[in-house]
Fold:
Amino acid sequence: MIPEIFAHRSIRNYLSKPIPEEVLQRVLEAGIRASNTGNMQLYSLIVTTSPDIRAELAPCHFNQPMVAQAPALITFCADIHRFSQWCRQRQAEPQYDNFLWFVNGVIDSILASQNIVLAAEHEGLGICYLGTTTYNAPEIAKVLQLPQGVIPVTTITLGYPDPEKMPTAGLLAANELPNLARIFTERRYTGKDNLFMSRKYFETLKQQGFFNQ
Structure:
């Protein structure tokens, strides 16, 4: 049994305590040990500790307080750019700028992210996945200056949990709805929003060069 798996919960409030460099390095090294497509590692991890850049990223994540509060953000990106460069340096012509290899990059990104989450929680850190990454991928790509062939997939906040601010109950009462299904379909993830965000992400895929073939 791996205790971190069964103790996992999303952390949305963090102490101001910085993450020691050696701890952060161990966590990141766990990520690159994850299985990946053809041992090609079609992903990049962008670790943001700068308060100024986190402040730039905050609106991309709907200004959730934890984005500025957590000492680190890790943005996981599908990345065919790096491997394509490696191929060209060896006189091989890559043909990975298409949807199939975007999907492979997404799989690699998520596998790496889960390793990082488990390692982080083993070190006493807390995390929260940010679904807003796919909502505002073009804005995030601009802040992080991502080149062609790189697109954001997901982000986690990372830091030491604040034990004084635990999650509160009352989701149903706050939304004045009888069940979670109604909250999801009527408030959080509506059909109108789903279509808008889908089109937006699809356009970003094209802008970042995943549909050149």
User: Anything to note?
Assistant: The mean pLDDT is 93.
